[in-house]
Hints:
Aspartate Aminotransferase, domain 1; Aspartate Aminotransferase, domain 2; 2 domains; seven-stranded mixed sheet; four-stranded antiparallel sheet; about 40% helix; binds 4'-deoxy-4'-aminopyridoxal-5'-phosphate
Amino acid sequence: MNDFTAPPLLQPALQLDAIRAQFPILGEVIHGKRLAYLDNAATTQKPEAVLHALDDYYRHANANVHRAVHELAARATTRYEAARDRIAAFFNTAREQIVFTRGTTESINLVARSFLQPRLQPGDEVLVTGMEHHSNIVPWQLAGAKTVAAPVLDDGSLDLDAWRALLSPRTRLVAVVQVSNSLGTINPIAEMVAEAKARGIPVLVDGAQAIAHTQVDLATLGADFYCCSAHKAYGPTGFGMLWARREHLEAMQPWQGGGDMIRTVSFGGSTWNEVPYKFEAGTPDISGAIGFAAALDWISGVGLAAIAAHEHELLEYGTEALMGIPGLRLIGTAADKAGILSFVLDQAHPHDVGSILDQEGVAVRTGHHCTMPLMERFGVPATVRASLAVYNGRDDIDQLAAALKKAARLLS
Ligand code: PMP
């Protein structure tokens, strides 16, 4: 009798070909070349499951939600609210704590207007980090707060001691990016949340670059607010969510007024709908919610552990490949890093590099990536950024490296 049992796989292997086959856009031919799509931190491509969910909604269920009694309105409302349940389940939280927004940017603006601004005293600060996206800086300034930034070390990691020293009685809120879109640095948010909360300071986490790459459990994170965008996680553009502690949502006044967010309206005054609806004025992006839920289901189907392992392996492969290119300087080499490779090439302007890469079928982003203070910190106006997703493989990295060698030759 054979009593041998195979040891369980530590990580389920990812079937790259099968995954790619689900993204029709990856078959596009760009300037006669195979597409190597490495601009995933800007936005990811969408799998058939998401395309189908959007298409099916518009073909079979399109109507406005929450208002009419007819069958299509019932279908739309059922799909829309079921999407909220699926999204809440993905993040291990309650549906009432999920406010649908246009994305991370709108979520942060909502917190700035409805939570921060009414609590601000003169001299109050929001403690951010030197690697924040503009959307985690400007809304606090617009609300009237002073933004104080904890410094970034040379490897692109956060100077945690300096961050700690900047927590003060004036700190009204801590706002921190979970994964830097420019460097890939993964911040120790659990530790930061715990330290800020121990001092009674609320914490907002910008999860825009995190949710497609790592499991986020909102029940245990301990933060006060969490923001993300569907389009960076294989979902549609212009849709996202704000998660918040229920007591904050109950206490906060709505930011925008209009249909759906009210309970009663009269010329003498109005009263608000229950959470989360009191923050969702106007006709929502119904297909956005349905598409986001489909995207998160798709991610769960592949498995975040397998996705993370695949992207990590590719990041290591890519780092080595890029370090072999003469004149290339990688910016952001923190020990704890997600799949982002930011770099400059000698004296060549990143935009020129990006244009040559495009001619070779390689899609990357060039610019300041909405992190101007971070570019200043590293003394560069812009970088070239290659960012990874689950459908990328070594062939994409090889194509990038070959195109970069060509760019280095042409631009030297
Ligand atoms: N924060 C980070 C870290 C981001 O990468 C982005 C998108 N580049 C945003 C916030 C803003 O997201 P959105 O444009 O979807 O609102």
